[in-house]
């Protein structure tokens, strides 16, 4: 198969996946209580006015243990996709650590 045709199908597939993900995502108001808002504000994290709910998914951790999004219910969760060769990714690590320390491990989970 020609590389040009294969590239075309790849980009069309990515476009369709992105479009359908956006169209079928549910937008909801954030149900933050006063203590959660205060925690975010103290950590200098901007409280968003709305969000798009993430659907539950399951993945394998580096330890081999399986985890799902539902496992972290009730906590703030940061999913951080990065690579060792990505210099902006490496530069943000101290900031993520600072947020983690200020919010606390009982309230925040960072999966990177």
Described by its quaternary structure, the protein is single chain
Overall SS class: alpha+beta
Number of helices: 3
What is the typical, i.e. mean, pLDDT?
80
Distance between the termini: 37 Å
* Strand portion: 15-25%
- Tally of extended strands? 6
| The CATH class | Alpha Beta
Could you spell the SSE succession in H and E letters? HEHEEEEHE
* Strand ordering within the main sheet: 1-2
CA gyration radius, whole angstroms: 18 Å
* CATH second-level architecture: 3-Layer(aba) Sandwich
Question: How is the CATH topology named?
Answer: Glutaredoxin
* Low-pLDDT regions: none
| Principal-axes shape call | globular
Counted up, domains total 1
Largest sheet: 2 strands, antiparallel
Please estimate the helix content: 40-55%
Notes on the structure:
It contains 3 helices and 6 strands, in the order H-E-H-E-E-E-E-H-E. Strands 1-2 form a two-stranded antiparallel sheet. It has a two-stranded antiparallel ribbon with strand order 3-4. With 112 residues, the protein is of the alpha+beta class. It has a single domain (3-111), classed as Glutaredoxin, CATH 3.40.30. The chain is 43% helix and 18% strand.
Question: What is the fold's blueprint, element by element?
Answer:
Elements: H1 3-24, E1 27-29, H2 34-42, E2 50-52, E3 58-60, E4 66-68, E5 76-79, H3 87-103, E6 108-111
Parallel strand pairs: 5-6
Antiparallel strand pairs: 1-2, 3-4
């Amino acid at each position: 198969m020609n590389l040009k045709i294969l590239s075309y199908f790849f980009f069309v597939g990515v476009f369709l996946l992105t479009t359908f993900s956006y169209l079928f995502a549910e937008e909801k108001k954030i149900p933050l209580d006063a203590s959660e808002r205060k925690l975010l504000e103290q950590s200098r994290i901007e409280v968003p006015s709305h969000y798009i709910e993430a659907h539950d998914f399951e993945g394998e951790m580096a330890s081999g243990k399986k985890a799902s999004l539902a496992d972290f219910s009730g906590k703030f969760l940061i999913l951080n996709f990065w690579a060792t060769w990505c210099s902006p990714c490496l530069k943000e690590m101290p900031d993520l650590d600072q947020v983690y320390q200020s919010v606390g491990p009982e309230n925040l989970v960072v999966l990177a």
